[in-house]
Write a structure and sequence with these properties.
Elements: H1 10-17, H2 27-31, H3 41-54, E1 59-67, E2 72-76, E3 82-83, H4 88-100, E4 107-113, E5 116-120, E6 129-130, E7 133-134, H5 135-149, E8 154-161, E9 196-201, E10 207-209, E11 217-225, E12 229-234, E13 237-243, E14 249-254, H6 258-272, E15 276-283, E16 294-297, H7 302-311, H8 315-330, H9 335-349, E17 374-375, H10 377-387, H11 393-399, E18 423-430, E19 433-441, E20 447-456, H12 466-484
Helix pairs in contact: 3-12, 4-7, 4-8, 4-9, 7-8, 7-11, 8-9
């Protein structure tokens, strides 16, 4: 399945892809304080608009906008080091495109030693059942057929090697009270359904998807709740609260142990396809000189994953990208190794004098009062300008949500001043941080790069919320576009 959407961004991208003859980093402008910046009318209006909000207690704002050759358009504390929320994904996806290439695919390999099957996970994020693409079923069918072709229909043991990623779960700095939600789906070397499980309930019996047979017990512990709810009691039992209205319904929540869940899914899937499977075990770093009976290529390319990651702000996919970078270039699929690779790759691509302190690939990590996933608006602008000069920038640009059209910006920037498709940008939000960075096309057909990041503390200022800052950045971009018209 190709997740890359067909957009109408071609004309805009022609402008973005034009070679820049003045790609020099405007160091003096970047280091200048607000009071020292050229006081153009637009600059004065930007300062006035943002200063009025920034002066409130519990709020810090950083903003910068430039053209593609680095000429400053306006700035307000653009050198402020700030947490980025999901704007972190811009760093992760750009580095992945540079280092791995848009045609990179993940591989899952299966080896057979007599009646012992070893499946070596390779981080494939596409083993899911989606409309028009049943990659999980196709993998199971391919594995079962490979076993039958080898003359095997009965296995004494199934082993799973999950060492490609060191992680088997969520990032340690992800909020513990949110770990059941889709935006905190856990990663592992072998994972099915993006780390999520779906429970369907009806009056007869509840069921799980992906199917794992009877390996996990489903127990209704509360009757007649306001809605269907389910949660893990432990790794082998799920508790259910049935809905009051008695109607069939579904609920999705994260897998408790994604590697174990994938193993149970393999056991059940092979059984349904005529392969008897004995015990299940997990091994580390399986070594062999044998040829695999199955060398499975992911249904999605890296380009597909980058588009889905940025369009839908998918945290699971961002972490897969970061951990893959660590494994492929440091032989260590850890968050620490992935962060090192991102920094090195972006320096080699041409970024200079930038601040980047990452903890994860998605921006979900937080460790208040310590700030993680830190950069500056001026650094994001430099990254966006760099991507406009590179071949990898075509997929990167196509991955950004389009204002009023798709992704996380579908319901925003719908006014005529922002159309047709003048805003292509990545959103970001976690508690205390709201961000938006990307490209905007003004009425003079000039492509600009911008980054807006705000930190807010509701314990100090009850007037702070993401809705307010979404409106502020929309007003800010409207000001920029109207100044150019």
């Amino acid at each position: 399945m190709n997740l890359r959407p067909v957009t109408l961004a071609g004309l805009l991208w022609i402008l973005l892809a034009m070679p820049s003859t003045a790609f020099l980093y405007a160091q003096e402008a970047v280091e200048a304080k607000v009071s020292k910046l050229p006081q153009t009318e637009l600059q004065q209006e930007v300062v006035r608009m943002l200063q009025n909000v920034d002066r409130e207690v519990g709020i810090d704002i950083g903003f910068r906008i430039e053209d593609l050759d680095g000429t400053l358009v306006a700035d307000y504390r653009g050198d402020l080091e700030m947490a980025l929320a999901s704007n972190t994904k811009l760093w992760t996806t750009s580095a992945a495109l540079f280092a791995l290439g848009e045609d990179f695919h993940w591989r899952t390999r299966a080896f057979l030693e007599e009646d012992h099957l070893i499946v070596v996970g390779g981080g494939d994020p596409s083993l899911r059942n989606l409309p028009g693409n049943h990659a999980d079923d196709a993998f199971l069918a391919g594995l079962a057929q490979s076993l039958k072709d080898s003359g095997t229909t009965k296995l004494k043991k199934l082993s799973i090697d999950g060492s490609y990623f060191q992680a088997n779960g969520p990032h340690p700095l992800w909020p513990k009270d949110q770990l059941s939600f889709e935006y905190t789906a856990p990663v592992s070397s072998l994972s099915v359904n993006g780390g999520m499980v779906e429970l369907s309930w009806n009056a007869k019996a509840p069921s799980l998807r992906p199917a794992i047979g009877s390996a996990i017990r489903l127990r209704t512990v509360q009757e007649n709740g306001s809605s269907l709810a389910a949660w893990w009691k432990d790794s082998r039992e799920i508790h259910i609260r049935s809905p009051r209205n008695g109607k069939p319904s579904q609920v999705a929540f994260t897998q408790r142990d994604p590697l174990q869940f994938a193993g149970l899914w393999l056991q059940e899937g092979l059984r349904q396809r005529g392969i008897q499977v004995g015990s299940l075990e997990f091994v580390d770093s399986y070594q062999t000189t044998q040829t695999p009976i199955l060398d499975w290529q992911s249904a999605w390319s890296l380009a597909d994953v980058v588009v889905a990651c940025n369009k839908e702000s998918d945290n699971y996919l961002a972490e897969v990208l970061l951990l893959t970078l660590g494994q492929e270039f440091r032989q260590k699929g850890s968050w620490e190794a992935g962060v090192e690779v991102i920094d090195q790759v972006l320096k080699e691509a041409g970024l200079v004098d930038f601040v980047l302190q990452l903890a994860d690939g998605s921006g979900m990590a937080r460790d208040w009062p310590r700030v993680v996933n830190v950069s500056r608006p001026q650094d994001l602008c430099q990254l966006l300008r760099l991507m406009s000069t590179k071949d990898e920038g075509r997929v990167f640009f196509d991955s950004l949500p389009i204002g009023g059209v798709d992704g996380s910006l579908k319901q925003r920037f719908q006014e005529s001043v922002f159309q047709p498709q003048r805003v292509h940008a990545k959103t970001g939000f976690i508690m205390r941080v709201s961000s938006l960075s990307g490209y905007v096309l003004d009425d003079e057909d000039r492509v600009l790069v911008f980054s807006f990041v705000v930190y807010f503390d509701r314990s100090k200022n009850k007037q702070t919320n993401n809705k307010r800052f979404r409106k502020l950045r929309q007003d800010l971009l409207r000001l920029v576009l109207e100044a150019a018209s």
